[in-house]
Amino acid sequence: MAGPAPQRPALIVPPDPSTDIDLRLRRMEAFEAIRQLIATYAIGADRKNDPEILGPLFSEQAIWEADGIAHLVGRDAIATGLAGLANDFVTWSLHYMISPHITVDEAAEKAVCRWYLWELCTMKQESGASADTWYGGWYDSRLGLHDGTWLFDWVRLEPRLASATETPWQGKADNGTGASSPPFLN
């Protein structure tokens, strides 16, 4: 006969009654704001790294980096540099930002986050030809509350998979104009 079922870890940490309710609310709002920041990043990325969408997601002195791809410092450099990558390297994309793991500091003013990336994309190859590609990895980030708005202070892409497909993607619409990309839901 089998013993008792193993105990499952609690999915929700019980609230600490000594913690101020306003602080608890700010922390909950931080988690949601960070999830929205990641989702907006995906929309901007799928619109050929639209600088008008991506730029405002970063603090003035932010850093975006990926070894062998780019090291960009400052909001304007990130917006311009990512748009250049979409023009020169990743010419079409469909980003799935998956399972963000968010840790917010005790004061609800700083956070770290890791989320997984699963991406269908068209990448220019060393030969100059384009290939539809499976792309995967994760993002690590540090975020801060800047004048009441959560922004990325540092983002690092860690690619782990890039594999050209044998069969090109079917039904791929041009997302250069954003016309075929999902609209913002306001």
The number of domains is: 1
Mean pLDDT: 88
Structural class: alpha+beta
Q: Oligomeric form of this entry?
A: single chain
- First-to-last CA distance: 56 Å
Task: Please state how the strands of the largest beta sheet are arranged side by side.
Answer: 2-1-6-5-4-3
Main β sheet profile: 6 strands, mixed
The count of helical stretches stands at: 3
Commentary on this structure:
By secondary structure, the protein is of the alpha+beta class. It has one domain: Nuclear Transport Factor 2, Chain: A, CATH 3.10.450.50. The protein is built from three helices and six strands; from the N terminus they run ααββαββββ. A six-stranded mixed beta sheet has the order 2-1-6-5-4-3, with helices on one face. A hairpin with a 5-residue loop joins strand 4 and strand 5. The mean pLDDT is 88.
Topology diagram in text:
Layout: H1 21-46, H2 51-54, E1 58-66, E2 70-73, H3 75-88, E3 90-104, E4 110-124, E5 130-146, E6 149-164
Parallel strand pairs: 1-6
Antiparallel strand pairs: 1-2, 3-4, 4-5, 5-6
Short overview:
With about 190 residues, the chain is α+β, with helices and mostly antiparallel strands.
Provide the descriptors you would attach to this structure in a database record.
186 residues; alpha+beta; Nuclear Transport Factor 2, Chain: A; six-stranded mixed sheet; 3 helices; 6 strands; 24% helix; globular
